[in-house]
Please model this.
Amino acid sequence: MSRLDPARWGTLWQRLGGSAPAGSFAELEAAYGEPQRHYHSDEHIAACLGHFDTWRHLAGYPDQVELALWTHDLIYDTRRQDNEAASAERTAAWLRDVGLDQHVEPLRQLILATRHQDIPEDNDAALVVDIDLSILATPPATYADYERAIRAEYAWVPEPLFKAGRGKILRHLLDLPRLYQHAPLAERWEQRARENLAEALERLEG
Model:
């Protein structure tokens, strides 16, 4: 059963200034329910929305942030290199379909920020990224489940290649001056996240 709420989806679009595009919630449910998604599923989106409910007041344009959290993993295929761009484009198409073109470019930038290539300078992009990375700061057992789920999503990748690629990602995150850009989130999450990442890297390279 989906963890996503169709009423919340519809209300969000009303606040944005229109109506939810026809068939959009069904498409969303189908995407996040794909069997190959062991982590990037409706559970991840529901968790992001739960954190957003707590930290909504940090957003400059909260409805845009919420839509980005709903759709940032809409397209997710571990064999692709453009998942975020494809998710942004699908969201942009929905916005255009219902005449909300003014939100297209902001949403694109919010979703592209979840590529985690650069530290976001924009307040709302930073909030989207902070919330997307909230899993890093969970208790050790939950974090270990996350690492196992990521491995399952890349089951097609041979173990030596996976370890090399995953290790590069973990080191990149640990090398960032700050994982979380918003001070209230950094205070709660930074230390635990760094401990989890360091332990995961040690297990990977051990």
